[in-house]
Amino acid sequence: MVQSRMIIVGQGLGMTQKSELLKIMEANQSPRKCLRRDRNHEKDPSSNSTEVMKQEIWSEFPGDLFETVVARLPVAAMFRFRTVCRKWYSMLGSDSFSQYYSEVPRGLPWFYTTIHENARNNAAMYDPSLTKWHHPSVPLARAKIIIPVASAGGLVCLLDILHSNFLICNPLTQSLKEIPCRSVQAWSGVSVGMVMNSGTSNEGYRVMWLGNDGNYEVYDSMKNTWSCSGTFPPSIKLPLRSRPIAVGSALYFMCAEPEGVLSYDVSTGIWRQFVIPLPLHLSDHTLAEFQGKVMLVGLLRKNAATCVCIWELQKMTLLWKEVDRMPNIWCLEFYGKHMKMTCLGNSGLLMLSLKARRTNRLVTYNLLNKEWQKVPDCMHPRSNRKRQLISCGTAFGPCPSALA
């Protein structure tokens, strides 16, 4: 990564006070051995003079150029940047910054998870680029039990289990919106999917729920209403397996009888069924998405051996083709154990929770470069536990301008 140096001037700040952004840039520079002349220069009192920047020049610095630069910063640095001054704090919520941000290619998704503990609404976000956990304080009532069930862009769909209603939040800005109650109040377990109407949340999003009885509805954020435009295919046996994935405006579900994939286009209201046999000896499998392709991840069990495998759906043959599997040295840790796998995020970068007796492992898999990485333990600052148990989660694209 090419690093650049720049000088940022904020109104109302003293020249001796460094901005948080500059601190981050300095911290990211590789340590190097100081030359003797540099050390002598630091000891010279006459070299401590502060460079005077001319107000008549920097006061005319184009504001849109600031937005262009900030839109290309890492997410963590972007939020530290807000501490410079009020003007820059409000910049992240402007329409122009949202446009600049949408034009910049984004990096790895983050993961929004909930922590299994007696305390309710304990959330944790994982930044894979820095391999670091963050602990947001989403403004939720303590009486609610909230879990993440879907995501699209920079937004996460939360489910209030006790009241059976949905909330939409931006985990970065901690903004929260409760969407209207569903017209169908029956609650027998649901599959929930979410898609964006376009590349940004400014043009709205849609949330779909599908019950075990075949009832379903779609929420349109632009209309702020639920609607149903069709009937569920009677040939499909419910309930469906795993969490749905989004490819464009279509949601893909995994069905068991017959084995295969079921898709629903939220824009057209059309259902499509694809009969696709699963690989042998497969368990705990779920769908994933990568660059518009439908993927499959699951545990392959044979005798006492267990391995995590990745498949890609071939469009021409409608068959699953294995494209990668977990390194053998990692799989040896699972030998002879009854492993259970849960996929906490399934868009480009997978987060997998692997559990057995006395074994609890979190790993990520990058579908682009086929890289496996172990996730560091989540240490919540308000908990007495040395190690937190992640109960559920979803991947989202961190975006400070995403609006619920």
TrEMBL record:
Protein name as annotated: F-box domain-containing protein
UniProt keyword terms in alphabetical order: Repeat
InterPro entries: Beta-prop_At3g26010-like, F-box_dom, SCF_F-box_component
Domain F-box intervals: 55-104
Pfam families per UniProt: b-prop_At3g26010-like (PF24750), F-box (PF00646)
Highest taxon listed in the record's lineage: Eukaryota
Native source species: Zizania palustris
